[in-house]
């Protein structure tokens, strides 16, 4: 099993969710995040005063997947999240040793 985690632009969440639903993903976790990458934030002008925005708002999307589905889910997220501009985000995949569905006690891939 794999845990696919993506940190992406908030405005891309709907297209990512639609792509994952079309692929057949039955569950995902979404949470707010903030941070910066190579762009290191930006300077904004508000009412004539400049101020620095160091932490940029992002969305964290997590999907638990079977090994054989992970590559296709990864590509679905990348395709839906990409704008071709700096700040599109990052996606990474990590191995998951075990999963337990709390309600039923199912373990492993049946718990996904």
From TrEMBL:
It comes from the Bacteria. PROSITE patterns: PII_GLNB_CTER, PII_GLNB_DOM, PII_GLNB_UMP. Keywords: Nucleotide-binding, Phosphoprotein, Transcription, Transcription regulation. The keyword Cytoplasm does not apply. It holds the Pfam family P-II. Belongs to the P(II) protein family. Homotrimer. This is Nitrogen regulatory protein P-II. It comes from Sinomonas flava.
């Amino acid at each position: 099993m794999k845990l696919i985690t993506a940190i992406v632009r908030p405005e891309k969440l709907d297209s990512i969710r639609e792509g994952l639903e079309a692929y057949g993903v039955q569950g995902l976790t979404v949470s707010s995040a903030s941070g910066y990458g190579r762009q290191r934030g930006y300077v904004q002008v508000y009412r004539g005063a400049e101020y620095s925005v160091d932490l940029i708002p992002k969305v964290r999307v997590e999907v638990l997947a079977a090994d054989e589905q992970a590559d296709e889910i990864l590509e679905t997220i990348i395709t839906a999240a990409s704008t071709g501009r700096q700040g599109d985000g990052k996606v990474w995949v990590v191995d998951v040793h075990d999963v337990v569905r709390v309600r039923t006690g199912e373990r492993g891939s049946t718990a996904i």
